[in-house]
Design a protein that fits this description.
Radius of gyration: 18 Å
Number of domains: 1
Shape: elongated
Strand content: under 5%
Largest sheet: none
Order of helices and strands: HHH
Structural class: mainly alpha
Distance between the termini: 37 Å
Amino acid sequence: MNDEIKQKILDKETWLRGLYMLLFILIAGVARFVIAVVVLFQFFSVLFTGNTNAQLLILGQNLSTYIYQITLFLTFNSERRPFPFGDWPDGAPRRL
């Protein structure tokens, strides 16, 4: 095996990122479940009151942005680690 390839395989930073990636895959699954719950609550809010719940709108937007940030990290489009290692998103996503 080439020394350069062996050195890349043994790079601790890459393995550390891989562990972060596994963690964020799990967190994204939980976040998607929470979004599904928000969707149901929002639907029933509109069904019974005729209005959306403002707090659920904000939570839904922030969760969507959070999943976007996780996806950027997982696909190597960003080196910035999302929450809990960075700030919680507030509003629509910004290009990183």
